[in-house]
Structures are given as C-alpha cells and as structure tokens.
Model the fold of this input.
Amino acid sequence: MVAKIFMLVVFFAVMIGVGFYSRNKAKNVNDYVLGGRSVGPWITAFAFGTSYFSSVVFVGYAGQFGWKYGISATWIGLGNAFIGSLLAWLVLGRRTRVMTQKLDARTMPEYFGKRFDSKALRLAGSLIAFIFLVPYTASIYNGLSRLFGMAFDIPYEVCIIVMALLTAVYVIVGGYMATALNDFIQGIIMLIGIGAVIGAVLMGQGGFLNALKELSLVPTDVTVTAQPLVGSDGLFASFFGPDPMNLLGVIILTSLGTWGLPQMVHKFYTIKDEKAVKTGTVVSTLFAVLVAGGCYFLGGFGRLFADAPGVITENGIAYDNIVPSMLKTLPDLLIGIVVVLVLSASMSTLSSLVITSSSTITLDLIKETFAKNMSEKKQLIIMRTLVAVFVVLSVIMALKPPMFIAQLMGVSWGALAGAFLAPFMYGLYMKNITRSAVWASYIWGVCFTVANMIFGFIKSPINAGAATMLLSLIIVPLISLVTPKLKKEFVNEIFTCYDKTVTVHVDKSLEE
Done:
C-alpha cells in the first residue's frame, strides 16, 4: 500500500507541477486553447493517442467486448490504430491544420460557422458538443473509480471527486500546453504499464498458450452470440470470434468516431509544421497498436475470470467489474503501476474533454451571442470557470451512471460523430457542401441518437452510433446536391489556403 500511495503522490505532483510550469504559456486565448499552434511532433502524437484511450477502453470496453468476443476483440484495437489513428492523420491532419489557420478557427463549431458562413451553425454545434461530451466524461470517471476502489478500497464517490479536482487544477492553470505536456508523460507511462500488466495476467493463467487453451474450452454463450454460430466450439479463442457482425459495429464506432470528435480533431489544429504531421502519423498509430491492441487483447481473456466475485451478479454480467477482477491477483507493485496507467489514460482524455467544452461554450456561444467585444482576459476567466462547471456536471452524472461504461460512451460518440464527422471531413475537401447539408447532419446525429435511447430501434447503442456515422456520410453529399450552394467567390477564397506553393527538397519530390 505504501508503494501504491507513493506512486500516486509522485504522479499527482508531476501533473500539477506541469500545470503551473505551463501557466506562463497560457496568457491569451490562442495559447490557452491551441498552445499557440506550435506544439511539436512527439507531443502532438502522444496528445492524440492519450486523448483517444482512457479508462473507458481499459476497464469498460476491454471488459465488455473481451467478454463478448474473446480474443477477436483485439481487432477493435487494430481498427483504432489503422482507421482511428493512421487514416485520421492521413485524411484530416494536414488539411485541418491548413484550413483552420486560414479561417482562424480554434474550435470545431467555429470551423463550421466560418466555413459555411453561418453563426447559427456555430451556436448549434457548440451546444451539441457541450451536451454530449458530458456523458463521455462521466464514463471515464466511472471506469477510473472502479479501479481505484479495487486497489485502495476507497468509496466510489470519493474517487470520482478527487480525480475531477486534480484534472481541473492543471487544466485551469496551464491550458492546452499543460494538457499536451502531461499527455506526453502519461503516454510513456501507458506504454510501459500495458506490457507489464498483460504479461503478469497471462503468467497468472499459466502463460499465453495455456490461457488460450483454457479460453478455447469456454462454451459459447447464446445471449451474446449470433444464432448461426451457436454451438460452435472454441469461438472465444478464434480469429473472428462468436459474433463478427456486431464486432464490426464496435470497430466502426470506436475507430471512425474519432474523425468527428471535437477533442480529437482539435489536436490537428495545434500542429506546428510538416514534421509534426509525419511524426504524429507514425507515432500515434504505433501507440494505438500497443495500447488499444493490448487492452482489448487482455480483455479477451476475461471469461477465464468468470468465477471472480462481482463479475456475474443476480442482475447479469457486471462488465465494468471484469478487468478490475483480472487485476486483483497481481502483486501490489503491479497494481500500483496499473492504477497509474489507467489514471494517466483517463486524466489525459478528461483534460482534452474539459478544455474542448469550455473553449467551445466561451468562444462559440457566449462571445458570439452575448459579448462580441469581450476582452482576452475575460475570455480566459470564463473558460477557466467553465472547466470547473463541466467537471461538476460530469461528476454528477458519474455518481449515478444510467448504464454501463461502454453504452454511455456509445451514446456520446454516436451523437457527436454522427453530427460532425461528415460535414467536417467533406468541408475540408469539397467546395459544394451546403449549409443545409450541415444542418441535416446535426439533426440526424442528435435526433437519431436520442430517439434510439427512448425507443430502442437498435438495441445496442454501439451499433446505433456506428449506423449514425455511416449514414451521415451518405446524407451530407446527397443533401448538398439538391440545396442552395454557398457563393462561389466565398468558397473559392477559403480554398486558396491549399493553393500556396512551397519549396521542398529533392528527396521529397522529383519535380523540377
């Protein structure tokens, strides 16, 4: 216990110290929100990766989907790496940095407002972002608290409140630069920790081969398996698992979803130069392979711990207790590493969420609607105040979560990415996307998500979120074909940002 507490104290001291160190680099709005658009390659890459993965993945998703799909859940981590990281950087990274600088946009709603010449789009986008980021944040507190309860036997409520206060302090003080620097430190911890945890858990099951053999003997559960595969042997240790179609839905939501999440796309706004793009693409992809792939791989062995207390209850399977149960048997020192690992993952994501939400409400709602001439100093004060407000709201929801961690995140991602992904991406590439198409995407993403919560058209919030995103990719170009276009001169002026000629070395291009 002394070792675990010591590790936590050191961790918290470093995080808070970085916050105060970064204070001098957050004296104006641009620096507070974007780090002055001068964040280096490695820090940008780690900021993207650590904001992507949190206790939601390690505790909630790894536990639930590892139980449902066995070893094949590892495909989710690989999808996160190659679709959610590699393709996201290749498709969105460079163009996002160039166009948002041209538009002087610091948030995703501000991008929509300036790209499509509509203050109403900007205001509506800010409200959607703020409302649906709250349940995502609550899911992170939820997962983190369960792990703390396992390691320290501390009440769930106390864990949530302490984590919220610590995150709020360094974000309020240091802004985006504090978040990015802490993300780098936290990312290194995550990389070291995940390998140690996987090795220790598998050794406790007699090694990898023995664990895989035991998993292959687990009977297929009809409650989580597609009917055609019921009765097959060894599905939980197989390549595609017992339910490949629903597995695909999870891969789509958790991988493609990052393309439309404000706190993820925001990382591209802060890119310093071309080197940061190239390094960020490679490093964030490798980071995702190791961290996400490792988490889901570990969760795939969850059924070997079905007899652990708290996993199977009178109300069914407590998915959020599976991973903590897997870790209870570890030595105290390793449990300390796990706690710091998940704490690192969670605080990095939390800090990204709260700074995204506070800056969106301040710049896109309050300043645009009520105080257009607001000074930089007042904007910073309001942003820092809203960080605290957002933390309080998410803590309230986390104290009495309405559903499992995975479902809570599925609702949030489905609404946000369903509303934002298609118009954001198409807006970077296509001149003919219309204002009406953006409204259609907003309405579709929010209304379908809320309606599905009430009426349950699609039983799984995960699959509902995936369907919302995919259909938005069809809706936006179709609506753009039949609705009034923006003025050609206005759009052409925006797209001049891609026309600038730059000189490169011959090793990058063979053009004369």
